[in-house]
Design goal:
2 copies of one chain form a homodimer.
Chain A (H helix, E strand, L loop, with lengths): L6 E7 L1 H4 L7 H8 L4 E7 L5 H11 L3 H4 L5 E7 L16 H16 L11 E5 L6 H10 L8 H18 L3 E2 L1 H8 L19 H18 L36
Parallel strand pairs in A: 1-2, 1-3, 3-4, 4-5
Helix pairs in contact in A: 2-9, 3-5, 5-7
Chain lengths: ~260, ~260
């Protein structure tokens, strides 16, 4: 790596990821707890499906040759499906099998030793899309002169497909669909406690996302939990003042 | 640039910058409005003074040779002085003249064509440290068994020194000291409306920081205001669907 110094957490996804920079969004909260340890890079593209995100990811994730020059991606979250699961009459729709194949393709781009972007230092987390509150979403769509373009059961089915891909690929799954569904007591109308418009998460929804990501890191990659990483540069009251500037040289985030 | 794709806003500073990742902190708000246009890289180091930050910056900011491989820093905020202005009995204290010289050195590292880190694409903003509420800070220090290590007039004087450096170097200054001082009606006790502990900004304080940074960008580098930049990848409803994946190729953030 040439400069900028810190390795990164890359968040790949759609509007749910893009909105992570809202106050108390999951990107903001990750950036806060990983401050001075890992940078957070948000590659959430509102409205995108897995089909459109593949060429984006190919441009955002360094090839093996390029990896020596850029910060290492230590954690990669892949969170798509909310748009793939749109009704088949929309341009965003991607059939369920194709969606699953695209997720597997994204994962293998990073984890397959034969891939040009193979990156053994990168830990992948796969998130399932949250349930849709069609009662809320229908009202907003109709106010905009459109019609309902999401389906509760379809999103459930796409979330299950994502979980199956994670299991088949050996990648930990953050099963948001079920976590949010459990949180609202399996009552679709009560999803409004976690979704501000029926599709997008509010702060309570993002709290579940953040908590579940951290739990999944703790369980599967405890060495990457923020409490187990050291800051790249020392805390100010630990600087060896007799040895400046050498004491201020970049250090590994992994304690000895 | 090899990958990761977006150019960046780099925030260099002390705890006031580090805290920018708090909800509604200025880093969070910049990341939100510059989403899909510029990434935000927080290089705020709590407790650091200008003396300690120089070797840090040398490691974080690419040399000319390295710059081809890493994202360009389009905007660099330099915001130091809150610790330099600590009382002379502390390890954090840096004499005022040395503080001013260090700020000039940081600026010239980027702007002097003879510097190894010369980067004409980088626009520098210099922020003055905010005023200190010694009434608040003293209570907290004494609770911790310490004594008052900040001085209202010293911080004012350091803020003035930073403004003078900005003027001399031809770099726009975000004069937070005066903006916050004006906001509280020139009454030190009322600084508690903007500082949660007498030294560090709360959400109301960060709102001033964010607003003043955006105003300063609008005035001095309007081409870098977020409204004048295009997203690196197209909005989903503007994707030329007959031309995928070519339509999803990275584009300049500067509209033609």
């Amino acid at each position: 790596m040439a400069a900028n110094v810190e390795d990164v957490i890359m968040l790949l996804g759609d509007s749910l990821t893009q909105g992570g920079w809202e106050p108390n969004g999951f990107a903001e909260r990750l950036a806060y707890v990983y401050n001075r340890k890992l940078d957070v890079i948000n590659r959430g593209m509102s409205g995108y499906n897995t089909e459109w995100i593949i060429p984006i990811f190919e441009q955002c994730f360094a090839t093996q040759h390029e990896q020596q020059h850029v910060p290492k991606v230590r954690i990669l979250t892949i969170w798509l499906g909310a748009n793939d699961a749109a009704t088949p009459d929309t341009s965003q729709h991607v059939p369920r099998d194709k969606y699953a194949a695209n997720l597997a393709k994204l994962i293998r781009m990073v984890r397959d030793p034969a891939s040009p972007r193979y990156s053994p230092a990168t830990k992948v987390l796969l998130l399932t899309p949250p349930p849709v509150n069609t009662h809320q979403w229908r009202v907003l769509r109709e106010q905009d002169g459109g019609s309902l373009d999401r389906n509760f059961e379809a999103t459930r089915s796409y979330a299950q497909a994502a979980s199956d891909v994670g299991a088949a690929e050996g990648v930990p799954v953050v099963d948001l669909w079920n976590k949010v569904w459990d949180a609202c007591g399996h009552v679709e109308e009560r999803l409004s406690e976690y979704l501000w418009d029926g599709l997008h998460l509010n702060q309570q929804g993002y709290a579940i996302v953040f908590d579940e990501i951290i739990k999944t890191i703790s369980t599967n990659f405890p060495e990457l939990h923020y409490d187990n990483l050291a800051p790249v540069f020392p805390l100010w009251d630990r600087i060896d003042l007799d040895n400046v500037p050498a004491a201020l040289t970049k250090r590994s985030i992994f304690p000895n």
